[in-house]
């Protein structure tokens, strides 16, 4: 259950598999692959990259949700905040 309306990501014309809740520590090594989604999150919340690193905490106020494409294996991320 999310704080706002739930979002289920898709890619390659199909829904992605939900991997789990994440914060910056869990996805830092995936920065390049998640760049487009992270830029969208920063834009939506008006955050700098440093602010995103600080506030995106697993089980924190800015929660990340990691998904994986069932077709090509690309990882995607979305977020929610309280």
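^ structure tokens above, recovered residues below v
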């Amino acid at each position: 259950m999310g704080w706002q309306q739930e979002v289920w990501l898709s890619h390659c014309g199909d829904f992605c598999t939900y991997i789990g809740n994440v914060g910056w520590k869990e996805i830092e090594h995936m920065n390049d692959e998640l760049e487009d989604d992270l830029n969208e999150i920063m834009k939506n919340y008006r955050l700098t990259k440093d602010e995103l690193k600080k506030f995106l905490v697993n089980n924190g106020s800015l929660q990340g949700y990691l998904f994986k494409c069932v077709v090509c294996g690309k990882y995607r991320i979305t977020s929610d905040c309280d």
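The mean pLDDT is 93.
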